[in-house]
């Protein structure tokens, strides 16, 4: 069976992240990916979860507390500043671009900060580690970010990175697609 976009993103991380590693949720939103990563790395591992909105940080904090998770650090800051928080090798990362569902559609991820964050995380990514990027682009501003991110990952040096795009090409209304960047160095 073909996996959906988010399922495939999770599957790829599951294949590549190991217990005890430090991983990043660059856009924690309602915390679903943060909790998924928390389980993947286990009690000895660590999740750094970023969001610029207090609403997202508190929703994720509540879910983490309800489940007794102690391996998550929530960071209310732009992922563009990720380099200020990364202290060790990163086992993998996820970006869910766009806006927080059922929230202010004007607060969206943007090309410049997304690319700065990608650059920072790539420089700490373990060999064979993956950054997965779920690209939602149907909203206002989404097309500009999509094009800039595609342009950025397309020009990554082939000898250093594998870059993959996974998408359903017969769906209507700008369906999301997945990008995955694997560090070969
Ligand atoms: C599509 S939502 C994420 C959904 C989330 N992964 C989940 O499981 O619910 C995108 C999130 O990115 C956040 N965001 C926008 N710009 C950001 C930035 N520069 N740094 C970190 N988070 C940002 C938004 O506040 C929003 O919560």
Automatic annotation (TrEMBL):
Q: Which domain of life is it from?
A: Bacteria
Listed Gene3D superfamilies: Vaccinia Virus protein VP39
Per UniProt, the keywords (alphabetical) are: Methyltransferase, Transferase
Biological process terms in GO annotation: methylation
Any one GO MF term held by the record is: methyltransferase activity
The answer on whether this UniProt entry bears the keyword Ion transport reads no
Q: What is this protein called?
A: rRNA methyltransferase
Species of origin? Virgibacillus indicus
